[in-house]
Design a protein that fits this description.
Blueprint: H1 3-6, E1 9-11, E2 14-16, H2 21-47, E3 59-60, H3 61-68, H4 72-84, E4 88-92, E5 95-98, H5 100-104, H6 114-121, H7 123-129, H8 132-138, H9 142-147, H10 151-157, H11 159-174, H12 177-183, E6 191-195, H13 201-209, E7 214-219, H14 224-233, E8 240-244, E9 257-261, H15 269-283, E10 290-295, H16 303-315, H17 324-333, E11 336-344, E12 347-354
The chain binds S-adenosylmethionine.
């Protein structure tokens, strides 16, 4: 076939031939695999803090390589590749300016997503993805196949991995915390407990917006020091407490609002139900209290990325992403009724009251 004669246009420099689905399919697959290489390149640049050195005045690859002790030619090729894919801007030969994405990957950005890059690039993630065919065989997580342990057991014996995953949780919550603080009527309550709250990033955002609130973080003991340091540097030590525990076993009473963000999907239905039962017994007969599940929910609007996130959730913690009705059923089985649904950026808040 003569591609150029029957081509109907060009995209990304390639001839498009609408009468040739196999050619379109090859281009599509090629773009998907390029996404994987783009990801590896971004992760390495973020790890080396290359994006921190790129400012509006325009910086050459040579000067960055010199400061960081990198190979200048190789760094240029990597920066050219990420610039060609919209991550930053190549302004003149071998000189680069930041873009919105490279700026968000700086280590000193208030809402930096560099932590996410460190987590996805960590060997705990990459080794687990190597096992994905096994995951499809038996449904057990890639982490279990790679290490013979659950994700949190592996992070416990690899403190540097725990740090990378914690940094990712900070990235995950930094931007959304204030939107969540505005999406729920915290002004009607006095105390809030963030279950599996990481080092307290979301709680910090909520307490800053609602100065009357007192808060708690329920987390595994490994995160205590980092969480207490984070609360102290935010000036919140007197308004927040770290509670070391396991939310599948017990959740403390005496809080008005129980939040759990991006943590229910880490667990299978049986464990989720145990968490919900623990929250239900903590709430007891006081039905003015509320339980709020904050999650990326699979729905028609966001199906393409939430269903892929479902793959990484299956692969790392071994859990699953769910639809709203799946969460609603878990809540019902755990003694709650879904009262209201709210949105905060890309997160859904399922606000439940005890029945
Ligand atoms: C995906 S992270 C979410 C963290 C935080 N809520 C956020 O949105 O950034 C899951 C969290 O669950 C915590 N976790 C794991 N097992 C736990 C358990 N048994 N009890 C309490 N927290 C647990 C982890 O330490 C981790 O911080």
């Amino acid at each position: 076939m003569n591609v150029s004669r029957s081509a109907s246009g060009r995209q990304n420099g390639r001839l498009l031939d609408e009468s040739e689905p196999a050619l379109q399919a090859r281009y599509q697959l090629n773009d998907i695999f390029c996404g994987m290489w783009l990801c590896h390149t971004i992760v390495a640049l973020a790890k080396l803090k290359v994006f921190d050195l790129i400012d509006e005045s325009g910086v050459s690859a040579e000067s960055i390589a010199c400061k960081l002790g990198l190979d200048a030619r190789m760094l240029y090729r990597a920066l050219r590749a990420v610039a060609a894919n919209g991550i930053l801007e190549e302004t003149s030969f071998r000189t680069f300016k930041p873009g919105a994405v490279s700026t968000l990957l700086r280590s000193d950005h208030r809402e930096s997503w560099r932590g996410m890059a460190l987590m996805w690039g960590h060997t705990v993630s990459t080794r687990s993805w190597e096992q994905f065919a096994e995951v499809l065989r038996d449904g057990r997580s890639g982490v279990t196949h790679a290490y013979g342990k659950t994700l949190y057991e592996q992070l416990h014996v690899e403190p540097e991995a725990m740090q990378a995953f914690s940094a990712a949780m900070i990235s995950n919550s930094a931007q959304t915390a204030k939107a969540i603080a505005a999406a729920f009527p915290f002004e009607n309550f006095s105390t809030v407990l963030d279950l599996a709250g990481g080092v307290g990033t979301m709680l910090e955002g909520i307490l800053q917006v609602h100065p009357h609130l007192f808060g708690g973080i329920l987390e595994i003991p490994d995160l205590q020091d980092a969480a207490e340091q984070a609360m102290a540097s935010a000036g919140l030590s007197k308004r927040a407490v770290f509670i070391s525990g396991d939310f599948i076993q017990r959740v403390p009473a005496d809080f008005d609002v129980y939040l759990v963000k991006n943590s229910m999907w880490n667990w299978n239905d049986a464990d989720c139900l145990s968490i919900i039962h623990c929250v239900r017994s903590a709430i007891g007969g006081a039905n003015g209290k509320r339980f709020v599940i904050i999650e990326y929910i699979i729905d028609a609007e966001n199906k393409s990325w939430t269903t892929l996130y479902d793959m990484q959730i299956a692969n790392l913690p071994g859990g699953r992403a769910r639809t709203q009705s799946e969460y609603q059923e878990l809540l019902r089985n755990g003694g709650f009724e879904l009262e209201r649904v709210a949105r905060a950026q890309d997160q859904t808040l399922l606000i439940a009251k005890p029945v």
